[in-house]
């Protein structure tokens, strides 16, 4: 089993949670959130007490998140390849991820809806928040779960109370638009003028390696063939 540093895992979870609040990233993953009122989507704590699936369906339709479930229904299909013979016959797309604080029946209410993933905020799984290593999962939070994030991961100024000496990762740059920064007049004023003159250097080639370079050099003098010595029969005078 591959062991990963704890700080690294926490950093990955924080990155996945931050990406779930950006509509562009969530839509790029294929989630249908065009009519969703806001991201991150936070609902009241009474949702944790739902015990019936019809209550969960009614909530998703009220939040305009049912289109994402329709996408899951439409994507149900048979797996291509030999996985069909290995108990993995049917596949489907991912739907919303419901993150709760306490289970007062919420798991029973949502578990039968296809594509839904249920996570406890104290036991967040990076493989569920970023399936396939791609961030941007559509997350629906309960209010108490959303408030607990500061206790779990802290803020930029205050350390986490439920973890030992851990703060939220801080941005290295306030403005990440690097190309705009480099083209700004303040930076351009401080740079030296570009050098227009081009100095072309002659490439010295090794004559012993390249055939073309060897042809330009003075060829070695041709060796004359050695004179053939006469045999004993040739030395004998003719009778």
From TrEMBL:
Single GO biological process annotation from the record: translation
Ribosomal protein keyword on record: yes
Cytoplasm found in the keyword field: no
GO molecular function: structural constituent of ribosome
A cellular-component GO term for this protein: ribonucleoprotein complex
Keywords: Ribonucleoprotein, Ribosomal protein
Chain intervals for the UniProt region annotation (Disordered): 201-239
Bias kind Basic and acidic residues: ranges: 219-239
Domain of life assignment: Eukaryota
InterPro entries: Ribos_uL4_C_dom (IPR025755), Ribosomal_uL4 (IPR002136), Ribosomal_uL4_dom_sf (IPR023574), Ribosomal_uL4_euk/arc_CS (IPR013000), Ribosomal_uL4_euk/arch (IPR045240)
Residue ranges annotated for the Large ribosomal subunit protein uL4 C-terminal domain, each copy included: 164-225
Chain's role: Component of the large ribosomal subunit. The ribosome is a large ribonucleoprotein complex responsible for the synthesis of proteins in the cell.
Family: Belongs to the universal ribosomal protein uL4 family.
Subunit structure comment from the entry: Component of the large ribosomal subunit. May bind IPO9 with low affinity. Interacts with RBM3.
Protein's UniProt name: Large ribosomal subunit protein uL4
Organism: Homo sapiens
């Amino acid at each position: 089993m591959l062991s990963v540093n704890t700080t690294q895992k926490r950093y990955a979870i924080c990155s996945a949670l931050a990406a779930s609040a950006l509509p562009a990233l969530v839509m790029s993953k294929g989630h249908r959130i065009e009519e969703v009122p806001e991201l991150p989507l936070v609902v009241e704590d009474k949702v944790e007490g739902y015990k019936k699936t019809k209550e969960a369906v009614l909530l998703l339709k009220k939040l305009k998140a049912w289109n994402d479930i329709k996408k899951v229904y439409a994507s149900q299909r048979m797996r291509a390849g030999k996985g069909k013979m290995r108990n993995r016959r049917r596949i489907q797309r991912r739907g919303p991820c419901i993150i709760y604080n306490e289970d007062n029946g919420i798991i029973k209410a949502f578990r039968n809806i296809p594509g839904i993933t249920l996570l406890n905020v104290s036991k967040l799984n990076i493989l569920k928040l970023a399936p396939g290593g791609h961030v941007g999962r559509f997350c629906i939070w309960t209010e108490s779960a959303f408030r607990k994030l500061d206790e779990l991961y802290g803020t930029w100024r205050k350390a986490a109370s439920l973890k030992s000496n851990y703060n939220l990762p801080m941005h290295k740059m306030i403005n990440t638009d690097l190309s705009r920064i480099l083209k700004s007049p303040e930076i351009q004023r401080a740079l030296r003028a570009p050098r227009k003159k081009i100095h072309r250097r002659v490439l010295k080639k090794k004559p012993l390696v390249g055939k073309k370079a060897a042809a330009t050099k003075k060829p070695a003098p041709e060796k004359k063939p050695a004179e053939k010595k006469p045999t004993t029969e040739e030395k004998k005078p003719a009778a």
